[in-house]
Design brief:
With 471 residues, the chain is an alpha/beta fold. Helices cover 40% and strands 23% of the residues. It contains 15 helices and 24 strands. The strands form 7 sheets. The chain has a 7-stranded mixed β-sheet, with helices on both faces. Strands 9-8-7-10-11-23 form a 6-stranded mixed β-sheet, sandwiched between helices. A 3-stranded antiparallel β-sheet has the order 5-6-24. Helix 3 (77-88) runs antiparallel to helix 6 (180-191), helix 4 runs parallel beside helix 5 and helix 5 crosses helix 15 (455-461). It starts with a strand and ends with a strand.
Length: 471
Amino acid sequence: MQAKIFFGSKEGSKDEWVEIKNPFKNKIVSMCPKCDKEDAKKALLIAKNAFKESKKTLLSQRVKWLEDVASKLESKREEFAKTITDEVGKPIKFSLIEVDRCIETIKLTISAIIELSGETFNSDAMPSGKKSISFYKRVPSGVVVAITPFNFPLNLVAHKIAPALATGNAVVLKPTPEAPLIAYKFAKLFIESKYAIKDALSVVYGDAEVGSTLVVSDIPRVISFTGSVQVGNIITKSAGIKKVALELGGNAATFVENSCDVKSAAKKCAMASFYNSGQVCISLQRIYVQEGVYEEFSKALVEETKKLIVGDPYDKNTFVGPLINTDAAQRATNWIESAVKEGAKVLCGNSVEDKMFYPTILGNVTDDMKIVCEEVFAPIVSLVKVKDFDEALEKINNSPYGLQYSIFTNDLSLTRRAIDEFECGGVVVNDIPTLRFDIQPYGGVKLSGTGREGPKYALEEFSDMKSVVIF
């Protein structure tokens, strides 16, 4: 099926098309137009003009708009889930979950936008002040550019465009090149809604040329990007004076402490390490295990990992599907080869069938190995034996990333220390760092990015404060 360009509310096409192949079957499942910088400029101009009207719309219309989209998405749940699996190879049961989460993200946005408000302030609080009616209110920022990744090609689009449109902005979406059709279908629900704001949403496709054109333009007031640190760094340097919200890479870690339920921790860690084939920015990559339970935990983790079904993503029982492409599989192989040369031991996995990369656990991993220093983005997890929490804390924080960390423990004092001393955007206690609720403020520190997602918090990214003083 063909994904079309949306120049505002009108569909557009091109002479040259890009074919998207299913990572598992290697068959063409979708096509999209090959856009260029002129298409990006055209979409931005349309959004600029659309904002003149979108900012004036009643909140009630925007709420009905989102309600209508959520309702239609619910009726197309299976179709949208299959499209996700077609384009990125995500196991169908997780594609269905992603559609459900997308619906929830829209509903959370509706609740948050209804509650979004300003507040009064006392202009006579200091001797230099005066009595007045003083308050601030939130207003839409303007044109928003949203750039999204392949690993959650539907819900991460929703996390950007739903709050942005709900606030009254106009949006230009550039979805991941790997999954144009799911983004097109989703955008179509917005654009064809009877409550739609004319031309408030545009969709263009492409890679660096299109993305760069959108970012450097003076038209957008907000750039919201989810992707790699390398691209995030380029965006930061080239965007100019505008808001930039970045959800970048991670190197998620957990500490397994002697007092925890080891079997439960192992089961959860197996899921966290290999969910979506490790292609998640908060995929569990580093497990620091206290020496008293290291052997027990490592054995339990291997047992739990071997239970995971690897294979056909269209099978409802499959847990681990293919990596996004052969380059990703080769990169994962290189990671393991490098670690083994440095002294790591393969406890299970390290088997590749085409793009099917089997869940791999590495033991005897040390701090200087590249596999624990960088984001792997593959179904590989490393075990590191540590003496105590202090050693684990130092090693966990010794990372350029800081998205989410977790701790498994029944020791309250260690729980408090983890909350206070982990250098990251989110801490999870007695569960996996891969845990994310769409309602939470989500984002990281250091190289993991700036700003926060989650509808309530995204509304702040996509709006500005305007103060008002009346005498």
